[in-house]
Specification:
GO biological process, one term: intracellular calcium ion homeostasis
Number of strands: 42
Largest sheet: 10 strands, mixed
Organism: Triatoma infestans
Strand order of the largest sheet: 19-41-40-39-20-33-38-37-34-35
Family: Belongs to the cation transport ATPase (P-type) (TC 3.A.3) family. Type V subfamily.
CATH topology of the largest domain: Calcium-transporting ATPase, transmembrane domain
CATH superfamily of the largest domain: Calcium-transporting ATPase, transmembrane domain
CATH architecture of the largest domain: Up-down Bundle
Distance between the termini: 26 Å
Number of domains: 6
Protein name: Cation-transporting ATPase
Low-confidence stretches: 1-7, 526-533, 732-738
Pfam families: Cation_ATPase, E1-E2_ATPase, P5-ATPase
Strand content: 15-25%
Number of helices: 36
Length: about 1100
């Protein structure tokens, strides 16, 4: 779009492309031999310098070297994303026109006359099932050309390639040119120092980049190089390498399971799958065959229960008799769920951070200032008749003075110290620049399982109803009478299964069943249980014999309950039910468990205790997960055939309420204190989990993410047309479209997807007020993070599973509590598996940001002060000597810059955030004042010098000659030496984000030594020292008074500089003046604007915002 927001007229040379969440612009270009020839000739004539600019700005390489053309004729396409990142991709013509961009393949569609993203098999479930007949060898070869091999390409670049790419960074190119200039000027010592520092920084960056690429490649190869069995078009089995799989293949899943190397739609049989790679939950998931319905296939949405995902592990298959378990390949390589995860890691959505972008802008301004100095020095040296070499050397030297080549290395000093301190704390960093970003974190997203909590749920107690009230809590359900209906309900109302002799299933079900002390038995072999007639049986541990239910028969039989039919948990109904039959009973029983508000609606009102509301409110507010249980006896005429055909709505009514199960998701002891610490520092905390929304609410209340007094509402999108938004207060059966403006919001993954599709304009409001984001897929987690980033939050994400990889990579700060896949995506990995690393990282980030900010300002001021000194002396054809330059650049500046970053972070997180914008008036104005003060002090020293009776001005020389050893040089140099130390002290700030300056012992020691040496050099210098520095000799009777005056000037400079930086810059009236200058009337951050809109009325309706 252009600057006015309108889409320009499409002339066929460009189009927009959807790349899975991204929208990029694609423009076609065709080769032009003439343009290429002229461009190369121009670059060669200019000694190859234009090649650098074409490398930095590839869009100009396309515009100058190629000719814009229609997309269907293009040889290359230029891709531009919304962050203005540019890429040039080659268009291949065989077997069809296509190009590849960020692991996506785009093919030319004649029907739409445009490029479209290549996806796997699509259509309705009915079409996919009916057309699944295998792939012929000829079709396979063609599909392999279209889709490519089933491998995810992760390029591990050589050290030389990475080194070459790093060296071509504009900063380092400028350093190389500066070193060349210093070599001509015989300034070897400092050139060697800069080469050493920059080389060290480059090598660390190259090694870390290659290490991360190798780890990622290893992760990808873990799902490749498998052999699979496919069924061809004739129904015969063939074994092929998984790399040769194409969409349309039918694969055979072995009974003992296997790792999935593609995305596939299950056609027959059932599969028990470990999807922890994608969801982070270790609970096995049962996949069922797709049904013949005319619904568009949504692999990550409504039809996830039919889809086997790449990277997951099939534990076991179950089938009927000797039938095969088969699946239709619908996606390969990067078209799979695993492929999208890898792509989000390799190509994260870019974000701009003020510190780095402002630094570039500042350097551009410094180059502009340098150009003024160059022009002035050219005028001075040409007017005095200097030769060309001297004019060029002295003029270009101004550029290296104003823009210090050591600036990139100096900016990383604080980061290096912070990285080393984090390493000692067990926090490892693969992207050091992110440490600075951590200092500006405004919001932290926490995964639940394994991050805030331990694994699983535990039964805290059971409240049984006597029909009138709830009885005292029973902590051990196994103590209930053996024939108690509530005990039978807890033993049967679940979806547990046996895998390798071990009970597996939902943690809630598992905890509930284990608390009863009963056993479970499934009929037949584990891999042959699909559509079994014999039911799953539960019984007490050890044989328990009871009287038959039938009153006319006194025979004792073993207590066994068979689960005849299961109605699985549904997020819509928020409950699950089972139909059971007890051995010896003549009728069946229905047991139901679920969310209390849903169960109450199904129960007879007379069976609900009077104290239910107050009891439920108490336990939910305390943070426990509460499950209600009910049952009813089915009529004797209700037979097995009825149980298999009946719909759940026909039996889930007029139930008898039994009681409440109180569960707790055990918090890690460190979670609540850390969240309190973050909230005290005004850092918003929210939960981003793949777990159930009610479990997430329970944990959030328990750990303090949501205060007990804060109302919480769930966002719901109605399924019937017209779709509307409802905010349903949790733990209440009432629904309303309005809620209190102080209410926090909870939302699940399905609702988030519906909001994104039908109400995208409401996402900012929901994200701003959202505290719980539950049942989120890996892609949705990344989408939530992106939405929060679009609201100007600096987002940190904390997770421990591969399902968090996308969000960890997308967030500004990703913190992994695992050393597995998540550590590859996250720039930070903590060896301590709890959230105590979060405040430690943020305090280190703030410390690094303040340090680097101070170092940047110090380096800029040092260069401008030196620039001022040089220009003042150039007027009289005087220049600083080589030793003087070396002393300032290497001894004073470099030593101070290296130790300034040793200050450690403050032990407490404070609400005040560090300044991060270099180009803000609150930073620029104090800098300008510091430069003015320094220039005035230097000019005053010259003015006072000229008033001395013993002063003899330097003789002006013509031509190439310049004077070094003279009184003008001595006065300006000695005063400026103090000024560099003063600027370092002033910008080495302490509280509130760092320890006080005196705690940095090495810095204080170096400052003391430099001050002592400078004072000796000024007041009582030795004869050998003055000659070495090319200063005027010491005369006790004549010059001592003047030297003491210079010392007083340095003292005055110190006082004024401290007042500017620590009094003026922090004063309220200064901030008030800046706001008036900027005319700041509205909030800068979008989330504050949205929050203000929500709070503008007492109640808010999301449809009207």
């Amino acid at each position: 779009c252009n600057r006015w927001g309108y889409e320009p007229f499409n002339d066929g040379t460009s189009q927009s492309l959807e790349t899975g969440g991204w929208c990029v612009k694609c423009t076609g270009y065709k080769k032009s031999k003439l343009r290429q020839l002229l461009l190369h000739l121009f670059c060669l004539i200019c000694f190859g310098i234009p090649y650098l600019f074409l490398y930095w700005y590839p869009q100009y390489r396309a515009k100058l070297g190629y000719r814009r053309t229609l997309l269907q004729l293009a040889d290359y396409v230029l891709i531009k994303d919304k962050t203005n990142r540019i890429a040039i991709c080659r268009v291949f013509k065989e077997p069809i026109r296509h190009f590849e961009y960020q692991l996506h393949r785009f093919i030319w569609k004649m029907e739409s006359n445009s490029f479209e993203l290549l996806t796997g098999k699509s259509g309705t479930l009915f079409e996919l099932i009916e057309t699944s007949s295998g792939v012929s060898q000829k079709q396979r070869e063609f599909n392999l050309q279209i889709y490519g091999y089933n491998t995810i390409k992760v390029e591990v670049k050589s050290y030389f390639t990475l080194l070459f790419k790093e060296v071509l960074n504009p900063f380092y190119v400028f350093e190389i040119l500066s070193v060349i200039l210093w070599t001509f000027d015989e300034y070897y010592q400092y050139a060697i120092c800069v080469i050493f520092l920059s080389g060290f920084s480059i090598m660390i960056s190259v090694i870390q980049c290659r290490r991360q690429s190798r780890m990622l490649k290893k992760m990808v190869e873990s799902v490749c190089n498998e052999f699979v069995t496919i069924i061809d078009e004739y129904g015969d089995n063939q074994i092929i390498n998984s790399k040769e799989l194409v969409p349309g293949d039918i694969i055979l899943i072995p009974p003992q399971g296997c790792p999935m190397t593609c995305d596939a739609l299950l056609l027959s049989g059932t599969c028990i799958v470990n999807e922890s790679v994608l969801t982070g939950e270790s609970v096995p998931v049962t996949k069922v065959p797709a049904i013949h319905v005319d619904e568009n296939y949504e692999p990550t949405g409504n039809h996830a229960k039919h889809t086997l995902y790449c990277g997951t592990h099939i534990i076991q298959t179950r089938y009927y008799n000797h039938d095969k378990v088969t699946a239709l390949v619908v996606g390969t390589a990067c078209m799979t769920a695993k492929g999208q995860l890898i792509r989000s890691i390799i190509f994260p959505k870019g974000f701009g951070f003020d510190f780095y972008s402002d630094a570039i802008k500042f350097v551009v301004v410094m180059f502009f200032i340098a150009s003024i100095g160059v022009a002035y020095s050219l005028y001075l040296f040409i007017s005095k008749g200097a030769d060309v070499e001297t004019v060029l050397l002295r003029s270009l030297d101004i550029v290296t003075i104003v823009v210090p080549p050591a600036l990139p290395a100096a900016m990383t000093v604080g980061t290096v110290y912070s990285q080393n301190r984090l390493k000692k704390l067990g926090i490892f960093c693969t992207s050091p620049p992110r440490i600075n970003v951590a200092g500006k974190v405004k919001l932290v997203c926490f995964d639940k399982t394994g991050t805030l909590t331990e694994e699983g749920l535990s039964v805290w107690g059971v409240l049984m109803s006597d029909g009138h009230s709830l009885l005292e809590i029973e902590e051990k359900p196994s103590n209930f009478p053996i024939m108690s209906p509530i005990l039978h309900a807890m033993a049967t109302c679940h979806s547990l299964t046996m895998i390798d002799g071990k009970i597996c299933g939902d943690p809630l079900d598992l905890s509930m069943f284990e608390s009863t002390g009963w056993e479970i038995e499934e009929p037949g072999n584990e891999t042959n249980r699909f559509d079994q007639l014999a039911p799953t049986v539960v019984r007490p541990s050890g044989w328990q014999f009871v009287n038959t239910i039938d009153a006319t028969d006194n025979m004792k039989v073993p207590l066994e309950i068979g689960i005849v039919r299961q109605f699985h948990f549904s997020s819509n109904t928020q409950c699950m039910s089972v139909i059971t039959r007890t051995l010896g009973a003549r009728n069946m029983t229905l047991y139901t468990k679920g969310a209390p508000e849903k169960i109450f609606k199904m129960c007879l009102l007379s069976t609900i205790p009077e104290n239910m509301s107050s009891t439920l409110a108490y336990y939910t507010a305390t943070g426990y997960r509460v499950i209600a249980i009910a049952y009813k006896q089915l009529p004797r005429t209700f037979k097995w055939l009825h149980s298999q055909r009946i719909k759940r709505e026909q039996v889930e009514y007029e139930l008898i309420f039994l009681g409440l199960i109180i569960l707790q998701n055990t918090l890690k002891p460190q979670s609540a204190p850390v969240i309190r610490q973050l909230q005290h520092a005004r850092i918003k905390c929210l939960m981003l989990t793949g777990d159930n929304i009610l479990t997430a609410v329970s944990v959030s209340r328990n750990c303090g993410l949501i205060a007990p007094s804060t109302p919480l509402s769930q966002v719901i999108v109605t399924s019937s047309a017209p779709r509307t938004i409802k905010l349903q207060p949790l733990h209440s059966s009432s629904e309303r479209t309005e809620t209190d403006a102080s209410s926090a919001l909870a939302i699940d993954g399905n609702t988030w997807a519906e909001l994104s599709e039908y109400f995208p304009g409401l996402l900012p409001q929901v994200a701003t007020r959202g505290v719980i984001f539950a049942r989120m897929s890996p892609q949705q987690k990344a989408e939530v993070v992106e939405t929060l980033q679009s609201l100007d939050y600096i987002v940190a994400m904390v997770g421990d599973g591969a399902n968090d990889c996308g969000a960890l990579k997308t967030a500004h700060i990703g913190i992994s509590l695992s050393t597995a896949e998540a550590s590859i995506a996250a720039p930070f990995t903590s060896t301590t598996p709890d959230v105590t690393c979060v405040p430690k990282l943020i305090t280190e980030g703030r410390c690094a940001l303040v340090t680097n900010f101070g170092l940047f300002n110090f380096m800029i001021l040092y260069s401008l002060v030196q620039f001022s000194s040089v220009l003042i002396l150039y007027v009289d054809a005087i220049e600083l000597g080589t030793i003087e330059f070396l002393y300032v650049d290497l001894i004073i500046t470099t030593s101070l810059a290296v130790v300034m970053g040793r200050s450690e972070p403050s032990p407490r997180l404070v609400p005040q955030r560090p300044l991060s914008s270099l180009i803000s008036l609150s930073n620029i104005i104090p800098l300008i004042l510091q430069v003015i003060v320094a220039a005035i002090i230097q000019y005053a020293s010259l003015d006072l010098l000229r008033r001395e009776p013993w002063f003899v001005p330097v003789e002006r020389v013509e031509g190439d000659e310049t004077a070094v050893q003279c009184w003008e040089n001595t006065a300006v140099f000695l005063v400026s030496c103090y000024q560099y130390i003063i600027l370092a002290v002033v910008h080495c700030k302490g509280r509130p984000h760092r320890q006080p300056i005196y705690s940095n012992g090495l810095f204080m020691g170096i400052v003391t030594m430099l001050v002592v040496f400078n004072t000796i050099l000024l007041v009582i210098p030795f004869h050998q020292v003055t000659n070495f520095f090319e200063l005027e000799p010491f005369f006790f009777n004549d010059t001592l008074q003047f030297r003491l005056v210079l010392l007083c000037l340095a003292g005055v400079n110190l006082v004024i500089s401290l007042l500017i930086e620590h009094v003026l810059a922090n004063s309220n009236w200064f901030k008030w003046c800046l706001n008036r200058i900027r005319r700041k009337k509205i909030f800068k951050n979008r989330y504050k604007i949205v929050e203000r809109q929500i709070l503008s009325s007492r109640f808010w309706d999301p449809l009207n915002i």
